[in-house]
Amino acid sequence: MDEQARIMQALGGVSLAGHSVQGGMGLQPPHGHDGTDDGRKQDIGDILHQIMTITDQSLDEAQAKKHGLNCHRMKPALFSVLCEIKEKTGLSIRGSQEEDPPDPQLMRLDNMLLAEGVSGPEKGGGSAAAAAAAAASGGASDNSIEHSDYRSKLTQIRQIYHTELEKYEQACNEFTTHVMNLLREQSRTRPISPKEIERMVGIIHRKFSSIQMQLKQSTCEAVMILRSRFLDARRKRRNFSKQATEILNEYFYSHLSNPYPSEEAKEELAKKCSITVSQGVGSTITVSQVSNWFGNKRIRYKKNIGKFQEEANLYAAKTAVTAAHAVAAAVQNSQTNSPTTPNSGFQMKDEEFQLDSAESKNTLLTNMFTGSSGSFNLPNSGDMFLSMQSLNGDSYQGAQVGVNVQSQVDTLRHVISQTAGYSEALGGNTMYSPNGLNANGGWHDAMTPSSVISPTEGPGSVHSDTSN
DNA sequence: ATTCATGATTAGCG
DNA sequence: CGCTAATCATGAAT
């Protein structure tokens, strides 16, 4: 192996040519000495010293020496030797460099960024455009309001991500070009195959892509945080205002046989609730919230009808009040007074028939209405319904009615029983009885909203049973 | 601190 | 897609 030794010698001399051609081994490997710590320290000290003494002048000098070497008459011979060495070491280089498959983690990140709309094709651009697009896509008024904040934040993340990505790409390209130039430059003094350059570029790209992965990762994190915050905010439960609940309950109990508001009805309910809801900022009730409410209400009502009976009675009565007022007018116009009572029953002011909201009214009503527990077994529900006209919702304040409540109610019943024709025309009162709730716990599926809604009103009208 | 009420979310169904 | 049923999670009442 004396050839190898010769080569090594030659290599050493050439490779260090830039620093000290004449001076022999400027940077001696540690094993050139005895290998003791002192020796190594000495070497390191020498190296440091040499580095420290590199000046512009010495660089120029080195450049000149390099040039001289390039023009050296022995250069081609040395070059061929180096090529030979490369040939021999090429295997190990190729062996050590394996083309790694696409990183699954990177793919995951990419997919997620794509799914979140961070890295995908531009959709909307700025937050304003996004909001506009959302608003334009019909019926998304609630969603866009809810999501606008989220969208704008996402857009911010997206912008940052793209600028950073661009920066990295630019830096990567710059660096690659730089290295390639360097290698090309060096290829004049040492053999560098295109493959090697390629490999180098690959290494650089891998390094930069690992930086990119960090960027992607942190972007993903940011998106996740944003998302979780958004979801948290949505999950935060705020009770609806009393008025909103009232409106919803009125609708529910007046459509008890088919408490499935149409889309339009939901929208109108949402609007109505939002108006009523404290007119405050952000206290809007969305259609989906209305849907949630009805979903919850239906299931909870069905699960425990008994528990909701009082409420049902209350709201039915409330609805009746408004309805009965209309009937009252009709009765007044079309009918002579009943033998037992003058029509004062309908003229009666609410204050004359006030019940305490929580206790007496409910017990009274419950007693009156309960036949079989938990179901509204009221053959003439319309009657009873109307008889409760004076239980006007918000103005229960005294419980001073006592026993004559019953008598008044009876009187009213009597009067109203003669107006059966009208009771049929009252939207909602027929729904008071949960006839729609069939034996196996479901509402009639045959029943459509339009079929149970007041004949005088269009299907889905929210105003139908509750307005004046 | 515990319990109840209630709005929101989720899986599964048709 | 809308619904039901179950469940989660929070607000309010006790």
TrEMBL record:
InterPro entries: HD, Homeodomain-like_sf, KN_HD, PBX_PBC_dom, TALE_homeobox. It holds the Pfam family PBC. It is found in: Nucleus. Residues 231-304 form the Homeobox domain. Signal peptide: none annotated. Residues 19-39, 442-468 are annotated as: Disordered. Coiled coil: none annotated. Keywords: DNA-binding, Homeobox, Nucleus. Residues 39-232 form the PBC domain. It comes from the Eukaryota. Gene3D superfamilies: Homeodomain-like. GO terms for cellular component: nucleus. Residues 233-305 bind DNA. Belongs to the TALE/PBX homeobox family. This is Pre-B-cell leukemia transcription factor 3. It comes from Oncorhynchus mykiss (Rainbow trout). The gene is LOC110535969.
